[in-house]
Every structure is written in C-alpha cells, then in structure tokens.
From TrEMBL:
Protein name: Polysaccharide deacetylase
A family per Pfam: DUF2334
GO biological process entries: carbohydrate metabolic process
Stretch forming the signal peptide: none
Matching SUPFAM superfamilies: Glycoside hydrolase/deacetylase
InterPro entries named among the record's database cross-references: DUF2334, Glyco_hydro/deAcase_b/a-brl
Amino acid sequence: MVSIHDVSPRFEAQVDALAERLARHVGEANFAMLVIPDHWRGAPIAGNAAFAARLRGWADQGIEMFLHGWSHKDETPATEGLAAIKGKHMTAGEGEFLNLPQAEALARMRDGRALVEDTIGRPVAGFIAPAWLYGDGAHAAMRELGFALAEDHMKVWRPASGEVLAKGPVITWASRSKPRIASSLFAASLGRMALPFTQTIRVAVHPGDTTVPALLTSIDKTLARFVRTHQPSRYAALGGAA
C-alpha cells in the first residue's frame, strides 16, 4: 500500500509529480492521498475551486482519500515528557494531534472530514495524523467520529474497536537535512531486503521528496522491488474494510 502525504494546494505540482511516478509502479488508482484542509493555515482548500476540482478528479479516478489533520502544524507543543521528545525528534513542529485535547481534536477532525467529503463527493477512507503522531485526545476523537481506518509508523487499525489490520514499519523518506536524507536512504535499502517477507508493506512519500534526486531514485527502487513480490492494493482491502 502506497500513499502520498501532505496533499494541499501548496504542493500541487509536487503531488502531481509523485502521483505520476507512483502510477508507473502500482497503477493509477492503487495508492492513497492524505489531504490537509489548510496547510499551516496558509493554503486552504476551501475557496480554491481549481484545487478542489483536482482533488475530486483524483478521487473519481479511484485514489483513496484520507483526512490528514487540519493544518499539519503543532500549535500545542508539549514542553516535557515523552510527548515533548516525540514532538522534537520525530517531526519539525508538525505533530498537530499529539497534544490536542479531545474537544479540539474532535472539532478539527469533524470540520476537516466535512470539507474533504464535500469536495470529493464520497466518504474519506480514514484519518491519519500528521507525522503519524496521536495523543489521547486524538484517539478518543477518532473513536467518537467513527473513522474506518487509521495508521501510525507501525500499524494500521480500526479506531472504533482497536483491531489491528496490518503490522510493520512504514517505509518513508526525509528531505529536511543531509543526515535525515542519508538515514532514510539507508532505512529504505534495509527495508528492501527485510520487508519482502512480511504480508503487508506500506510505503509513504512526501512532496519534499521531489526536491532530492537520490530520494526519488530510492522510491523507484523500493516500489520496483516490492511489486515483484506483493500485489499493489488499497487500504480498504485490509480485513474487508469498507
């Protein structure tokens, strides 16, 4: 299963390039898009008729659409404890749902889902938090709103029941710095050797990947390796998810 993160008017050209690249490996409908309603509160989908039309066209094409937060910006950063460590080391100020209280998480999820579903004309496939980081408030809000699917770095599950549908690390890349680029290239090469023995493989790409040729080469190598042993599939195929 393959996904494009951070789908937003801000990154339309990069999403186009990634969608074309992924389609060459897995087909034009066998990947998902994770949609941000208003990236860093500076790129709203609302009022952008041209991008809304693109989004609906992608959904009509068969691409699964997940809600991916509201702004993708952590506006309630923790200052101590495990949450502070995650917020500092696992993302660059983008763990939006890591520390949100339930009421605020609920409001953002509810409003985001309504906006995306009104745009694409069908239900979203699920909710995936920015940077795959969830706090207690986010988990409670997902259960209350009845999202069909969610995922983090290590699994895909049903929020309502907690049933785990797939296990294993997601292969992804980082473009923020040379050390992160190098470490993600190493992790992807390791994944190409170790993960073919797992039942379900997840691969996630980001708009920033398009700025680093070495990352694009690694993405191509990774997808080409896995399509030899695994069938490109949709998230909805997991456990008969709707």
